[in-house]
């Protein structure tokens, strides 16, 4: 935001004419960032699900994990992709990562808000599965009707 003011500092100006006396200009510039975006950059020991496998970031590259991964803060990522912290379990989805602090990141590198909210993540997964099933049922009904129409011709 930039604000500029100029005016008669003597109080002697006349309407319709230029102000008399000295003029002063005051400028104020304020820049405010409201962005809280954090981009993910893998660090040593982070875990990700890639090609259906749990991988650990080691020496600058992702390597398949041979065992469950245990972080110092008690978080455990098992080889099937289940992540556990203080009795809460969530499923690490394809392309997602978890850093050693327990923050979840999506495959595009954006932070996943409330990554430990298993109910929210589970509901999204169930909703997608229901949608996929509905599409399959619709396709089967269409095939049945089309087959029936062919028989009646």
UniProtKB/TrEMBL annotation:
Residues 137-153 have a biased composition (Basic and acidic residues). Residues 49-103 form the DUF6799 domain. InterPro entries: DUF6799. Residues 1-36 have a biased composition (Low complexity). Pfam families: DUF6799. It comes from the Bacteria. Residues 1-53, 127-153 are annotated as: Disordered. This is DUF6799 domain-containing protein.
